Amino acid sequence: MPKESTLLRDGKIVRSEDPLNLEMPFETLDGFITPTKSFYVRTHFPIPKIDKSKWRLRVEGEVERPFETNYDELINLESEKIPVTLECAGNQRNFLEPKVKGVQWELGAVGTAEWTGVPLSILLDRAGVKPRAREVILEGADHGKLEDPKSPAGEVKFARSISLERARKNVLLAYKMNDVDLPAEHGFPVRAIVPGWYAVASIKWLQCIIVTNEPFNGYYQTLDYAFWKRRGDNAELVPISEMQIKAEIARPSEGETVPANSNVRVHGTAWTGDGAIKKVEISSDDGATWNEAKLLGESKPNTWRLWEFSWRTPNRPGKATLIARATDSKGRTQPMERDPDRGTYMINHLLPITVEVR
Amino acid sequence: MPKESTLLRDGKIVRSEDPLNLEMPFETLDGFITPTKSFYVRTHFPIPKIDKSKWRLRVEGEVERPFETNYDELINLESEKIPVTLECAGNQRNFLEPKVKGVQWELGAVGTAEWTGVPLSILLDRAGVKPRAREVILEGADHGKLEDPKSPAGEVKFARSISLERARKNVLLAYKMNDVDLPAEHGFPVRAIVPGWYAVASIKWLQCIIVTNEPFNGYYQTLDYAFWKRRGDNAELVPISEMQIKAEIARPSEGETVPANSNVRVHGTAWTGDGAIKKVEISSDDGATWNEAKLLGESKPNTWRLWEFSWRTPNRPGKATLIARATDSKGRTQPMERDPDRGTYMINHLLPITVEVR
């Protein structure tokens, strides 16, 4: 359970008030779907106050027929309901050594919800994408000035782009989260959902879709939420995209006390970007040996998989460590060490937790 | 003349020792060609020590026939000799208010030399560029680690890209500067020259030419030497490219004393990116009225133009200001105010100098 000193709001940890950043205490994980009230909240600017009856969504740029639609029109289009896991690209940042700037997330900037909305491809088809188009910019109504000395002098809007191919694949313009209208902090009235990608791509308070011929180089695309990728002798700044494979232990949690010489249920979730979780293993000897956990439920695309493991605790009191490690259908697994070129994002190296055996 | 306290080396102002950054005292401007010993020096890392007999230049990437050439082969290819003005993208940074980070250049991080070398297009043709190629990365031998917290963790090489179209236009692989072998600090044995662009594109110590299908996003392309360009409600980070139109006054220099009620020769240079200087005007009344200066010599592409103006100084002793303003063949002129989205680069707003009338 969260430490007594931690400021909570509706059961979530307050990481910052302005902008509002709330984290799910990950030890409260209880089922495949994260209740909306427990779902982490990440914002960069004040939450836009949007009147549903006045909200408009524009589709413009390299299209034959730019248009504007409204909420009633949108919800009457063909819709889909899919479960999708969203993780903040900075989840687990608090565990980085040395400490880095940014919201100090522990394990809970991740959650799975059922999203109901209109496939983006329907709107793109209505607009008629021109042949030379390469990318689709998703722009939110949230905006403000930045303090980073490398940032633009004026205001920026929160915006990200994805390739046209990715945009046509399975991106949803969601207006319901777990079967009710999106709450304001989750992007009311409409949020994009880009399955398999870090949640920064899933633009909240969506108001504009811009098709372009050239790569988009906005602040949150090119400078923030980007990492360094090695290319030969050099490195290139690349926008964060697919989620990296990761397993997280919900219980026991860091510092929790467990009885000696007993069977203790270890449980958590694991997820990956474009693929399925095939295996979760647990080590209680600092990675010397690994034992497979049991995957629960069924595998669904773009969502996490719950798992559990029956751990025989040591005979004697003292400290013990647990590490979870996931492997996916593409053979990817988690690295032992942190790659510093990832900056403050994409944190999926193996993370031991320490428990107290009594 | 430079202040007595200014550290000079070979007549140049030492802006930093490590890396080596040297500026021409702009008041020493004396002719269309800048002598090599007066030419400003900009480096980012230790100057590579290159043995001409061991130097190789690779052409690779999206080409049919990647190859490697050496110095003797290169200098035996068809060559051209052209005068080109190079300006550091941070020239005049010292005049920005509030003060910003970066080398504190005044007026002298600019110069014109005659460059002898091989057109890049000859090497591209020899390699056979594939149809989908879009950009050409020019990579130098200079490299090191960066201190910027947003930089890659490992080493980077100094590299920039230009569009394939730009690469084929008039880029030179220069091995002579003002008719002698390039000095080490100017890129020995071979430096790219990209006419009309800020000098950051003119990669020194060239060792690799990489043709690519995708935009290059290296540190010095995307993060450093980039500026914010407004696009609708948003801003995009764009690599610095074409030089902005600018006139600079060489004499009288800031703080210089001139006789009252006399004709004083005001002189300097003016340059632009892709175009020709059509007019330089001088104001001695804070921009209320402007008088045309005389353009000297003939207009040559991609170089500055010298100019002079006979100024009738005020009758009475006191302070006076002078402002020079250039206009080019495309009708572009200098802005009154600094655009803060340009960050610490592309400084070409009108810059008054103050002189003492006695």
Could you please describe the fold and organization of this structure?
Two copies of one chain form a homodimer. Chain A is mostly beta strands and 358 residues long. Chain A has two domains: 8-239, Oxidoreductase, molybdopterin-binding domain (Sulfite Oxidase, Chain A, domain 2, Alpha-Beta Complex); 246-357, Immunoglobulin-like, CATH 2.60.40. In chain A, 7% of the residues lie in helices and 40% in strands. Chain A has a five-stranded mixed sheet. In chain A, strand 15 and strand 16 form a beta hairpin. The first copy, chain A, is globular and about 70 Å long. The two termini of chain A are 18 Å apart. The relative contact order of chain A is 0.15. The model of chain A has no long low-confidence stretch (mean pLDDT 96).
Percent of residues in beta strands of chain A: 35-45%
Biggest sheet record of chain A: 5 strands, mixed
Task: Give the termini distance of chain A in whole angstroms.
Answer: 18 Å
User: What structural class is derived from the secondary structure elements of chain A?
Assistant: mainly beta
Number of domains of chain A: 2
